[in-house]
Amino acid sequence: MNNVNQKRLFIASCLALLVTAITFAIRAKIEGVFTEDYGLSKEQVGRAFGPAFWGFAVAMFAGGYFIDIVKTKTVVWMAFFLHLVGIILLLMAKDYFSLFLANVFIGLGNGSVEAACNPLVTALFPDKKTKMLNRFHVWFPGGIVIGSLLATLIMDEMNLSWQVLVSILFIPLVLYGFLFFGQKIPETERVTSGVSYKEMMRNVGAPVTITIAVILMILVATVPSFTVSFDSALPFVIVAAVAVAIVIEGRAVNKITLLFPFIFFCMLLTASTELGTTQWINALLAENGIGPMIILAVVTGIMAVGRYFAGSLIHRLNTTGVLLGSAIISTAGLLLLSIAQGPAMTVVSAAVFAIGVCYFWPTMIGAASEFTPKTGALGMSILGGAGFVATSMVLPIMGKSIETAGPQITLRNMSVLPVILIVAFVALSIVIKNRKAVKE
Q: What is 6-439's CATH number?
């Protein structure tokens, strides 16, 4: 690519994702501060943390729809300034509203990073997209490792305030701003390949229904009066109605396969399995005889190493094989964590869980790019946004479950999600195999 510094742009993208990741570790650490020192309930903390996820989704959806209009460079700098404001607001947070507002800006900043950098990485490395997406996403678990160790060092060992921990975010923020400054950023792959905007929308299958469904999920995650109660049939009726609407829009209106909406559904479950568990790690494993932040560092450290070497594994097992194996191992990991007693068993169980969720996020993004390439940046943004908004729904539900049923029952209930994924990925592998057979 003429006048494009691939290495510098890739490093800048990784540092931007590092900021995103460290915010996750910080939230996992300071949730106890806001319950113990500021008097919020765990459900309130879950709701105040929610914007970090649905704000992510809003920014990703907006980025997906408009990135080719406003250009990737604009979205990158939006991410920088949203991160800057969010970090400053988080430093001043003292109650529910201020914590909520800080997470709105941080979530929008995090989402803008993914909306810009996922398509940027695929544009920089068109011949090894899934491999480099996994390399890029090394910095999500890698950043959580760094953030977890810093949290333990700063707050537990040095007894410094949580504000000192949050201030660390300014370092990678300034670095990625410097590296992006003055650089030529290439067009997205969709633009360079000549796929029209209309065709991109059509290949999403049901863009209108999916967008409305995500808005509804954000309301459920944010507004207490929209709280989901699974004691009634209403949530299941709504899910069925959304599924029917997707089929009608995809098959009757757009007359196209529903493969992308199916991948979208799987992303809701993979993200909730991974992020819901790690965000509540402090409360889930507080009584297991080992520092929860150490466990978080172990989990995310394994994920970082696994993602770095993902290329050879994906080559041997293929994308659907990796996803199916991940779902099986994730189920085992959650069940083991639900019965873990003592430091040794907790570490082993956490390691199994880490291996299970390791490849979920980047491989799901890669699956969309590989199996539905014409969905372009919009497809990748929808998946990333949907994953985070699903997590924002799960967080208050998990918080309430931890308070009422306890950590072990909560972990056992969470294992239902990867069990559903096992069935879904078996179906996906059959569909992809049949598609390849038809092409041959």
A: 1.20.1250.20
